[in-house]
């Protein structure tokens, strides 16, 4: 970084979880210079997982989801710009332009622009989405007892909304285009368990269906079926906000591409969170998870401060469905060993050719599988060759395997 740039600010574009965590980490790590956090939403940085659960249920509010309050932000000297988004990025001159025409120079820049809900071509008043806090509030007011709700998309957002809506007394139908629920990220046995759980709770789950059109009071399927409904929630994935990076000439694939330090193809610009496309196991990928936003937000802050450590955090996610919990860590491999847990739970282990644990997936009541997943994380780090029969044996604790 040149001497001329040293006096400029560090700027974070995107005031969501990853951007907010990066800003807080910069202060925690002793950065005392000017720090600017620019967000599209009017709110302070917050976490998104509660949106489909506590916020929809009315048991959580924005303050409970936020990474910090405005008093803390002011104490830390973090300048929060809301309602004045970045419209142009000029990497050559280390500056960016806001919607009001103002140019801001930067010494280092983090792009944590996240994404937006992928939308259907036909926009109608009773078609709702869930990506932001304000969208969660709009959906919450629509979920009244007896409301006939159609959820388009059988991924985690759609299924969590379905579970919450059932708890609020709605009649719920889930439409999934694929042959199973959350098929992109879950093994078939867990997809089947999810399907059975939702049907037990009265959700009408339809697989292998194609949406033809949405009317004012019904959804039409390609096979001619007409499903009367009051509201439609669409959960068909996220569209990463790469437009700013693309227009500035950065290397962009399915997200903003970065190296091991989360550096983009432009000098002094980094990326983190849902919009970041990084290498894992040699392949580029994005991860739209709480864990990734938290870990990459922290790591990008360290990279902005000149630390050269590679980003090596294990991937993982969780989802709460009624009174059951799903947790994963690491990566999926072809060699899978399963262990039955009490009350119909299941733990899947993914091994490499040398029988080292590479990943795990747990499904059980409540949060009971969390301790097993924590132990699996330690087994992955330990790189011990594991005995397949011992892994499958529910009588043998994972702590014993960790001790070798």
TrEMBL record:
The lineage of its organism: Bacteria, Pseudomonadati, Pseudomonadota, Gammaproteobacteria, Pseudomonadales. The keyword Flavoprotein applies. This is Pyridine nucleotide-disulfide oxidoreductase. Pfam families: Pyr_redox_2, Reductase_C. Residues 10-297 form the FAD/NAD(P)-binding domain. Residues 317-402 form the Reductase C-terminal domain. One of its GO terms (molecular function) is oxidoreductase activity, acting on NAD(P)H. GO terms for cellular component: cytoplasm. The keyword Manganese does not apply. SUPFAM superfamilies: FAD/NAD(P)-binding domain (SSF51905), FAD/NAD-linked reductases, dimerisation (C-terminal) domain (SSF55424). It comes from the Bacteria. Keywords: FAD, Flavoprotein, Oxidoreductase. Its cofactor is FAD. InterPro entries: FAD-oxidoreductase/Apoptosis, FAD/NAD-bd_sf, FAD/NAD-binding_dom, FAD/NAD-linked_Rdtase_dimer_sf, Reductase_C.
């Amino acid at each position: 970084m040149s001497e001329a740039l040293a006096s400029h600010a560090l700027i974070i574009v995107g005031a969501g979880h990853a951007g907010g965590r990066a800003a807080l980490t910069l202060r925690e790590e002793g950065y005392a210079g000017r720090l600017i956090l620019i967000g599209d939403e009017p709110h302070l940085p917050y976490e998104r997982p509660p949106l489909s659960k506590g916020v929809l249920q009315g048991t959580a509010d924005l303050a409970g989801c936020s990474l910090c309050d405005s008093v803390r932000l002011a104490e830390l000297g973090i300048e929060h710009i809301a309602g004045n988004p970045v419209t142009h990025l000029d990497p050559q001159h280390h500056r960016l332009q806001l919607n009001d025409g103002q140019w801001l120079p930067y010494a280092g820049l983090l792009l944590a622009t996240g994404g937006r809900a992928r939308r259907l071509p036909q926009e109608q008043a009773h078609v709702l989405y869930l990506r932001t806090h304000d969208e969660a509030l709009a959906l919450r007011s629509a979920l009244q007892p007896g409301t006939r709700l159609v959820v388009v998309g059988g991924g985690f957002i759609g299924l969590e909304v379905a579970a919450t809506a059932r708890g609020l007394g709605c009649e719920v139908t889930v439409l999934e285009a694929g042959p199973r629920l959350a098929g992109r990220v879950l093994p078939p046995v867990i997809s089947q368990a999810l399907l059975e759980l939702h049907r037990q709770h009265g959700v009408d789950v339809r697989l292998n269906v194609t949406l033809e059109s949405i009317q004012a009071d019904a959804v039409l399927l390609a096979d001619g079926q007409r499903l009367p409904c009051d509201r439609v929630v669409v959960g068909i994935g996220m569209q990463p906000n790469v437009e700013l990076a693309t227009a500035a000439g950065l290397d962009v694939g399915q997200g903003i591409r970065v190296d091991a330090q989360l550096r983009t193809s432009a000098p002094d610009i980094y990326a983190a969170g849902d919009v970041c496309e990084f290498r894992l196991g040699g392949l580029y990928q994005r991860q739209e998870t709480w864990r990734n936003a938290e870990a990459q937000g922290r790591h990008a802050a360290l990279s902005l401060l000149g630390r050269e450590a590679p980003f090596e955090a294990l991937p993982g996610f969780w989802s709460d469905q009624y009174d059951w919990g799903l947790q994963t860590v690491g990566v999926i491999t072809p060699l899978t060993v399963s262990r039955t847990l009490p009350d119909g739970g299941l733990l899947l282990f993914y091994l490499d050719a040398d029988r080292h644990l590479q990943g795990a997936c747990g499904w059980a009541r409540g949060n009971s599988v969390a301790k097993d997943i924590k132990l699996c994380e330690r087994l992955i780090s330990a790189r011990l060759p594991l005995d397949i029969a011992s892994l499958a044996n529910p009588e043998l604790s994972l702590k014993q395997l960790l001790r070798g």
